[in-house]
Amino acid sequence: MPQLNPDPWFSIMLISWFTYSMIIQPKVMAFISTNPPSSKTPTVASTTPWNWPWT
């Protein structure tokens, strides 16, 4: 069963993760967020319980 042979796929996975971790991820993390978090406190919506007629 060739699916169980990790020889070609393990090296491809390692090279892909190395590329992602060392090259792509720092470039993506260097972007400035276009929507910085605000210091406003979130408002909580007031909800009323539903009165079920059969309980």
UniProtKB/TrEMBL annotation:
Membrane disposition: Single-pass membrane protein
Superkingdom as given in the UniProt entry: Eukaryota
Annotated transmembrane regions: 12-32
A Pfam match: ATP-synt_8
InterPro entries linked: ATP8_metazoa (IPR001421), ATPase_protein_8 (IPR050635)
GO cellular component, one term: proton-transporting ATP synthase complex
Principal location listed in the UniProt entry: mitochondrion
Stated name of the protein: ATP synthase complex subunit 8
